[in-house]
């Protein structure tokens, strides 16, 4: 099915009645003659049904087309994609427009609609209690590592399968008959994702951290010394009339302006999508810009313990075209619809992962409190009544009433299993532990 037919189908479904040329034309930026041609092609293909003649001719969606709904694009997005897929010679040359960024006012301008953000939050907030930043991503790390590495690389043309990606990243087994660059691309994703998840509590949205992500993603794939460096050379975008900004100083300043604006955005999904759009649009690096934007857009999601975006089920050609719309038209509509669709798919996949793993959010939430209490118990050599009174006093002071029973159960389970191998980071020595354990026996 052509993009033209997709656009017409979306309009006809929206009109929800047999439509005349005069009903359809206001929804399109084309001539009436072109519309006649589009409709004739769609009728010939069987996607649209025509009844009547001349001025009484009306168009409706054919029954066969009802089972072929486009999974995510609106009529507006489809029209933009159609325009961007026209031959280069028919599209206007364009360059970077700093005024597009300057016009964005954090928490007043929104690329994602209120309804989109509401749906994303409903589905993405799978842990309902406050936990340390990055807890959710840590719990699903292996699944996130594989999915995000695979899909981000797939969008760049990498031919590793999902299974081969898993074997490479978790077992170190490279697939046969694959280019070395594909292996490096995936391994670089592994390093960058680990950097993001492990360092999320200190990983602010700054130019240095964006450059660090680029360095990890690009190392070994760009010329020596170019990884993490703002480019000095010009770049060209294939299949696009967009000519990115040149001049290293201006690029550096603009990257700083992007991160400063992003920092001020309070909604994590808007912040995420803003980074996805503008880091790719700037093209601050010699290559690997879109990969950098895809990882950077996960910083707000990981920090807020939301489901990360792994770009699951995102069609490579749709993504490439949607990005070109942002480059050439500064219109985010198709990319926003792709973002929402792919994110909701990620939520479904990760909700199953969380259920299978049996995440215990309250145990995670009070981990530090339990460790502090265990340290005091061991170092003060508390047993019997003294131990019970200390636990009761601490719990009453530091833990909300509705969580006290669960906290006490987790604490006693930890005390029962204390051993030299699991006391790292608790602040007491093996000798102190042995003395406390000896007191338990007596």
From TrEMBL:
<protein>
    <submittedName>
        <fullName>Fic family protein</fullName>
    </submittedName>
</protein>
<dbReference type="Pfam" id="PF02661">
    <property type="entry name" value="Fic"/>
</dbReference>
<feature type="site" description="Important for autoinhibition of adenylyltransferase activity">
    <location>
        <position position="156"/>
    </location>
</feature>
<keyword id="KW-0067">ATP-binding</keyword>
<feature type="binding site">
    <location>
        <begin position="287"/>
        <end position="294"/>
    </location>
    <ligand>
        <name>ATP</name>
    </ligand>
</feature>
<dbReference type="InterPro" id="IPR040198">
    <property type="entry name" value="Fido_containing"/>
</dbReference>
<dbReference type="InterPro" id="IPR003812">
    <property type="entry name" value="Fido"/>
</dbReference>
<feature type="domain" description="Fido">
    <location>
        <begin position="205"/>
        <end position="341"/>
    </location>
</feature>
<dbReference type="InterPro" id="IPR036597">
    <property type="entry name" value="Fido-like_dom_sf"/>
</dbReference>
<dbReference type="GO" id="GO:0005524">
    <property type="term" value="F:ATP binding"/>
</dbReference>
<keyword id="KW-0547">Nucleotide-binding</keyword>
């Amino acid at each position: 099915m052509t993009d033209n037919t997709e656009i017409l189908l979306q309009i006809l479904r929206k009109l929800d009645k047999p439509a005349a040329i005069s009903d359809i034309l206001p929804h399109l930026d084309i001539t009436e003659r072109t519309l006649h041609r589009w409709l004739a092609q769609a009728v010939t293909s069987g996607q649209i049904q025509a009844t009547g003649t001349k001025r009484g001719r009306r168009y409706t969606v054919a029954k066969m087309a009802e089972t072929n709904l486009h999974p995510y694009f609106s009529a507006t997005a489809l029209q933009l994609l159609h325009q961007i897929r026209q031959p280069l010679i028919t599209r206007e040359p364009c360059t970077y427009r700093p005024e597009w960024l300057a016009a964005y006012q954090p928490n007043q301008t929104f690329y994602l609609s209120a309804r989109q953000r509401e749906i994303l939050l409903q589905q993405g907030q799978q842990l309902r209690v406050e936990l340390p930043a990055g807890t959710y991503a840590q719990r699903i790390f292996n699944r996130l590592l594989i999915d995000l590495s695979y899909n981000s690389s797939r969008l760049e043309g990498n031919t590793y399968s999902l299974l081969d990606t898993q074997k490479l990243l978790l077992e170190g087994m490279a697939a046969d008959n694959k280019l070395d660059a594909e292996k490096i691309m995936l391994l670089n994703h592994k390093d960058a994702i680990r950097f993001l998840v492990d360092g999320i509590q200190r990983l602010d949205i700054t130019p240095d951290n964006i450059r660090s992500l680029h360095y990890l993603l690009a190392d070994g794939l760009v010329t020596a010394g170019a990884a993490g460096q703002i480019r000095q050379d010009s770049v060209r975008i294939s299949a696009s009339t967009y000519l990115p900004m040149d001049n290293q100083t201006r690029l550096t300043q603009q990257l700083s302006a992007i991160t400063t604006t992003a920092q001020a955005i309070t909604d994590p999904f808007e912040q995420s999508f803003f980074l996805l759009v503008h880091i790719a649009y700037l093209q601050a690096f010699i290559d690997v810009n879109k990969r950098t934007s895809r990882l950077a857009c996960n910083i707000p999601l990981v920090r807020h313990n939301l489901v990360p975006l792994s770009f699951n089920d995102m069609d490579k050609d749709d993504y490439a075209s949607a990005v070109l719309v942002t480059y050439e038209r500064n219109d985010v509509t198709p990319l926003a619809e792709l973002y929402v669709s792919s994110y909701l798919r990620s939520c479904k996949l990760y909700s199953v992962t969380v259920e299978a793993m049996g995440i215990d959010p309250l145990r995670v939430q009070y981990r530090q409190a339990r460790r502090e209490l265990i340290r005091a118990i061991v170092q003060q050599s508390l047993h019997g009544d003294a131990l019970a009174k200390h636990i009761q006093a601490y719990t009453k002071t530091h833990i909300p009433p509705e969580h006290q029973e669960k906290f006490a159960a987790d604490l006693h389970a930890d005390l029962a299993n204390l051993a030299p191998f699991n006391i790292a980071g608790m602040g007491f020595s093996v000798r102190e532990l042995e003395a406390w354990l000896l007191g338990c026996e007596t």
